[in-house]
Amino acid sequence: MSTEYVLIEQSSPLKGTVSLTGAKNAVSPIMASLLLTSGKNKLTNVPFSDDVRLMIKLLESLGAEVKADESLHTLEIDTSHIKSQSIGPDIMKKMRASILVMGPLLARFGFVEVALPGGCVLGARPIDYHLKAFAKMGVKIEAKGEYLTASAQKMHPTHCVLEYPSVGATENIMMAAVLTPGTTRITNAAFEPEVLDLIEVLKKMGAHIATFPPATIEIEGVTTLQPVEHHIMYDRLEAGSLLLAAAITGGEIHLPEAPAASMDVFLAKLEEMGHQLSYGDKGTGVALKATDSPKAVSFRTMPYPGFPTDLQAPMMAALCLASGKSFVDETVFENRLMHVRELQKMGAQIEMHGHTATIMGVDKLFGAAVIAPDIRASCALILAGLVAEGQTTMTGTHHLKRGYAGLLEKLQALGGKAQLLHE
Ligand code: UD1
């Protein structure tokens, strides 16, 4: 069997203007939400990553008719003939986001059966908040073999207090509540921009949703929802990844569509490093001119609007070459520092203390054979490879392809030497 890898070579400063794709973290929940409707939906600005292709398969396996046009970035999804509410292990094990069909299927059919997501449900990255909230809404949840079945004669509204503002739990509960008569309230809800994009879609369907500071969402259930047409928001995390690619190589980049207004903390850290940033009108568009003497900065990942955990790994790659000592504290996920070991192979000076990494800036990184342990780490290693002396080969490419649609092509267009190869 041939091994796929990304070959990355030391590149000149990346320069140019790039357009963004639709947001990875918005498209999966929005695709799941279409199960709340019966009819023809249309999504535009769809990022065709492997996760989206898998989500298409999932929806088709339930009976949805899907027309995908990858070149136009559009998806037409007809949900008139949903005949199954069961998702098997082949799909569940590959993509955790498939758990997001639970809320919509429960709301529309009162039943859903999902294979347990990879690993132990109540272990690392559990779904206990989702299940507790469904149980409070009158859903009976049972584990049967490798399946979890959830059923309800009639769901009722409730007050869900999340102990942590989980993105997935907030989305799943909202989707269950929009067709549940009465008022459901979510306190300590997640307010990531992708959650707001989902709220916009649900409102277009006819859902009644109100938000209250500091973090409450109130949903007044309705009896039916209409099919929708929606343009997926631009990906702030792809924007951050590309800005860092320009920053690490000492280049210049313009992202006209970047949702700068929802990237404040991250952008402030780039400025603190010494990079020059300028912004477009009304919170959209960012341009970066890299400093040639980046300074160390420290940050802690937090729920929105804090520093996004999804940009922690790519930012760390840039900090490996910044002068001074940076502290990076990963507070959202307990196991999201696996790129440290790989960056160390490239000559990075990083010490780990629990969930905190201390990075001592070095003058140079060196090409190495590295393995991408997750989606965002794959981006971090590619960025490091663009400035490392010599060649870097990165395996574990399925992570890159799951989460990014066309990142390598965009880097190439900016002058980056990174290509997907087989041996
Ligand atoms: C989503 C994003 C992911 C991002 C994350 C945080 C998608 C497809 N993925 O993931 O890229 O990094 O938000 O912004 O949108 N938790 C529990 N019990 C639960 C649910 C979550 O303990 O039932 C914990 C998790 O283990 C984690 C934290 O809450 O420590 C945050 O997780 P959550 O916000 O739910 O992340 P996801 O929705 O899975």
Low-confidence parts, pLDDT < 50 over ≥5 residues?
119-123
CATH topological fold name of the largest domain = UDP-n-acetylglucosamine1-carboxyvinyl-transferase, Chain
Global geometry = globular
* C-alpha Rg (nearest Å): 22 Å
> What percentage of residues falls in helices of 4 or more residues?
25-40%
Overall number of structural domains: 2
Strand order of the largest sheet: 22-23-1-24
Any guess at the CATH architecture of the largest domain? Answer: Alpha-beta prism
Kindly report the average pLDDT value: 95
What does this structure look like?
With 423 residues, this protein is α/β, with parallel strands linked by helices. The protein is built from 14 helices and 24 strands. It has helices at residues 24-33, 50-62, 89-92, 102-109, 128-136, 167-177, 193-205, 236-249, 264-273, 312-319, 339-345, 375-387, 397-403, 407-413, and strands spanning 4-9, 15-17, 40-44, 65-69, 74-78, 86-87, 111-115, 140-144, 147-151, 159-161, 183-187, 208-212, 216-220, 229-231, 252-255, 276-279, 286-289, 299-300, 325-329, 349-353, 356-360, 369-371, 391-395, 417-422. Helix 1 runs parallel beside helix 2 and helix 10 (312-319) packs parallel to helix 12. Residues 119-123 have low confidence and may be disordered. The structure holds uridine-diphosphate-N-acetylglucosamine (UD1).
